[in-house]
Design goal:
Blueprint: H1 2-8, H2 16-60, H3 66-93, H4 118-138, H5 145-168, H6 194-212, H7 233-250, H8 270-300, H9 305-319, H10 328-351, H11 360-378, H12 381-388, H13 405-434, H14 442-447, H15 449-453, H16 467-470
């Protein structure tokens, strides 16, 4: 503000200083309004991904468990909203604090401030419930309802916020947004959360599915995998497109602001970086989808739309870490490798008899880990300086001539997230298992939870008020008869 007034004052006449201050204050107010509106709109896009998760999950399970999985998606958002408000946001961004966990702003106390506004909370809450939604897919079709409530509260209120503090808060120990004392002189670049969101959700789901064991019938008596196909490819495709749409808030929205200018008077500013991030996101997803399409065709002989949708999402999960700091051509490499990682993880899962109905652990955990490594290999020096500022050391991708320090920081991020989530969520799922609160009974699993736990099927095939049904008259097939001859 002082620089603005000093530059403008010589151009004005009498009362120049007061006039310059007034004009610059108005520009500053407009900038705050534009940036907060941009962040709110991005939060709405990320929240719309919950509908995508719900449709994807519903289509990927059998019809007899549709109501159950839909309800868990709704409650991920509702439970996560309260616990992230009370504890999560403070643990994540409650500065000043130590490098491990935030200590201020519980229940949004002292919000808004010069550093944080309500829009920041809403945006970060949408991220937190996305992590919980990932986990719900891994343990679908066999988990008690109370277990969903417990794990969702714990994940969004404590486990995920601690990780986001480490790598996104200005005083997190591994954050690239620190002002000094960077990890390996670099800090971790995980721009929109391949590690913070996707690895967290994927590893939590991995432990839940491992401790529960596979669904009944997923593997036969000799250990060979048996396909338990989801009941609606239509819902899978609808959910995938909703997630694709929401990802344009997930990745470009992580700038938080759109108005900063990189060079005064130039056409190139943060708005261009936002657009580039949307492009890299798109290219990675599209490449992964096509790679999966042809890869699965070679392996199975089929063109499978469900596999293509999962491949697309794997590309998005991978590019999320480096979307703002890589060239568009590098995003194509990211998507191509992400598809191979997903295919490989799925083959390994079948070999070790691991059952994840939505491939969530493989997709988000495996592809997310590749995305974190990819950033350490392909981050561009120019874009790193633009996004993270010139005050931090200029560490960038190994393959871009930046040395190995950024890659080392990225590897540390993967290891500590896997360790933290394993220690917390793995322990929680084990305790639930020991107390008989994790897996449903064999009878409930065979009949389907919609019928045994939720009052009936998600799909109504007749009208309960139909009088013909009440009198025992059922619909029958109408037989065709020859037309009688005319008289």
């Amino acid at each position: 503000m002082a620089t603005c007034s000093a530059d403008l004052a010589p151009l004005l006449g009498p009362n120049a200083t007061q006039a310059a201050d007034y004009i610059c204050n108005k520009f500053s107010d407009a900038s705050y309004a534009v940036d907060n509106t941009y962040l709110l709109f991005s939060a709405y896009l990320v929240f719309s991904m919950q509908l995508g998760f719900a449709m994807l999950c519903a289509g990927s399970v059998r019809a007899k468990n549709t109501m159950n999985i839909m309800l868990t998606n709704v409650l991920d958002a509702a439970t996560g909203g309260l616990f992230y408000y009370l504890f999560g946001f403070a643990f994540a961004f409650g500065s000043p604090s130590n490098g491990f966990i935030g200590r201020h702003n519980f229940a949004l106390k002292s919000i808004p401030s010069s550093a944080l506004d309500y829009s920041n909370f809403l945006y970060q809450w949408a991220f937190a419930i996305a992590a919980a939604g990932i986990t719900s897919g891994s343990i679908a079709e066999r988990t008690q309802f109370v277990a969903y409530l417990i794990y969702s509260s714990f994940l969004t209120g404590f486990v995920y916020p601690v990780v986001s503090h480490w790598f996104w808060a200005t005083d997190g120990w591994g954050s690239a947004f620190r002002t000094d004392d960077f990890l390996f002189g670099s800090g971790v670049i995980d721009f929109a959360g391949s590690g913070v969101v996707h690895i967290v959700g994927g590893v939590a789901g991995l432990w839940g599915a491992l401790i529960e064991g596979p669904r009944i019938g997923r593997f036969d008596s000799s250990g060979r995998p048996v396909s338990l196909r989801g009941h609606s490819a239509t819902l899978v495709v609808l959910g995938t497109f909703m997630l694709w749409f929401g990802w344009y808030g997930f990745n470009p929205g992580s700038f938080n602001k759109i108005s900063p200018v990189y060079t005064s008077g130039d056409y190139y500013g943060q708005w261009s970086a936002v657009g580039r991030t949307a492009v890299t996101t798109t290219l990675a997803g599209c490449t992964a989808a096509l790679t999966t399409l042809f890869g699965k065709r070679i392996l199975t002989g089929h063109w499978n739309v469900t596999d293509v949708c999962n491949g697309l999402l794997g590309g998005f999960a991978a590019i999320t870490s480096g979307c703002s700091v890589v060239e568009p051509w590098a995003a194509i490499i990211c998507g191509f490798v992400a598809a191979l990682v997903l295919i490989g993880c799925n083959m390994l899962a079948e070999r070790v008899k691991f059952d994840d109905p939505l491939e969530a652990a493989q997709l988000h955990g495996g592809c997310g880990a590749w995305g974190v490594l990819f950033t350490g290999l392909f981050a561009s020096e120019k874009y790193v300086k633009q996004v993270y500022g010139t005050t931090r050391p200029a560490r960038y991708g190994l393959f871009m001539g930046g040395g190995g320090k950024l890659l080392a920081a990225q590897i540390i991020q993967i290891l500590v997230i896997v360790g933290w989530v394993s220690a917390t969520m793995g322990t929680l799922f084990y305790i639930l298992h020991k107390f008989g609160l994790l897996r449903i009974s064999v009878e409930d699993e065979m009949a389907g939870m919609d019928l045994t736990r939720h009052g009936g099927s998600a799909y109504v095939y007749h009208d309960d008020d139909d009088e013909s049904d009440k009198h025992g008259i059922q619909m029958r097939k109408i037989e065709s008869h020859p037309t009688p001859p005319s008289v």
